[in-house]
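Hi C.,

You asked whether I'd gotten around to modeling the 452-residue construct. I have! Everything is below, sequence then structure, no commentary in between.
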Amino acid sequence: MSLSPEKSDAVEPTVFAKPSVSRRTVLQRAAAVSLVALPAAGLLDACATGGGGGSTPASTGGAKSASNPLGVDPKAPLEVIIFNGGFGDKYATEGHIPLYKKAFPSADVKESSTQDISATLLPRFSGGNPPDVVDNSGDHYADFGALIKDNQLQDLSDLWAAPSVDDPSKTVKDSLVAGTVEFGVYDSAAGKKPFVANYAFTVYGIWYNSKLFASKGWKAPTTWADFTALLDSIKAAGIVPYAYAGANASYYQYLIILTSAAKIGGADILKNIDNLEDNAWKNDAVHKSAEAWAAIGAKYSDKSLLGLKHTEVQLKQNQDKVALYPSGSWLENEQKKDTPPTFEYGMFPVPSVSTSDKLSAAGVYAAAGEPFIVAAKGKNPRGGMECLRQMSSKAGAQAFSKDGWYKEMDTELRAATNELFYQGGTADKFVDRMQKKADAIKKDSSIPKFTR
């Protein structure tokens, strides 16, 4: 998947593959970091089931060596659970698991997938038999803060300090995109520790059918005036200009709203929101962004889409019934079975809302995602970290390429976004609602707090 607004024919980059991304094309690392917990893969409808635990005793590890720097017991079994979303799980079954088996041929490795990480795995964490590695993604991801508070997650410091598979003279950390390790650092009783390995590098923007645009003579906009003029042209052609799925994917749109806010007022807007700074949601940049997008929803969308799921709206876009759709760079892969020859994905960054925006119109929201965790109380935590080390190799990145944000904040923001965009909401209601929720989270001593 290309990072270019005009092309989408390259493979999906991973943070381990060091994609070439200039700071000009990213809303600064701080802006991306402020929303780390958001799921980085789309949601599918069918539900798979995760594997069960067992009575296998916990591994005490093995002897360290050049080929086994983390001291993994070569015969210890390993269990991996993958979120079955937009990226699927073939990258694990056909890529990452074989890499681990090649390194430890005597190990029994089990992989299974699910679309409801929380419901499938929280009982196992509570019961003391968690899987060793979990891709904690999707709409129903497990609450990072709660897992950390309960000492369920493995500190990954040893992983990041271990030699990389491809070049032992470099650590795994040195082989990553800058900021990736910091992206997974959280506060804990033992201080700030890296508990999460974010694997995919996801680019968010507004997606469209480049073949349809070419046939109509439509151009990707950079200014708000160009954007609304384009929407007028699309509407005149009898196509819903802009839409997202309100039933389960409103976070696609709230990322767009927050991106606009960051472009208007600078990347610290998002950092202040994440840090629960007083009145961060009431910043003028957030209000202006909400006001602009409320107007788009009122004039250029279809309120009936509020009740649809993401796959349903994405199918409508593939049928040219919806022109513009906010999403991440997993979209093309997720829709490949339903994409007709007449459809070719293109993406453009969120247009500038004003002529005085602090960040460039060319900037995109880009973030490391697909968060992997290792269970501290699992049967093979050393093997879990080694699995991530194998994933960090070039072979692991190639196999893949074919948050702990506050969960209550995420839930509230999804609902507030639907109200703003589809239900006649206003910018005043939006910022007041979100500030009230932020204040409540800030005052709740039972919720672990994080700073960026």
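If it helps when you're writing up: The two ends are 28 Å apart (CA to CA).

Thanks,
B.
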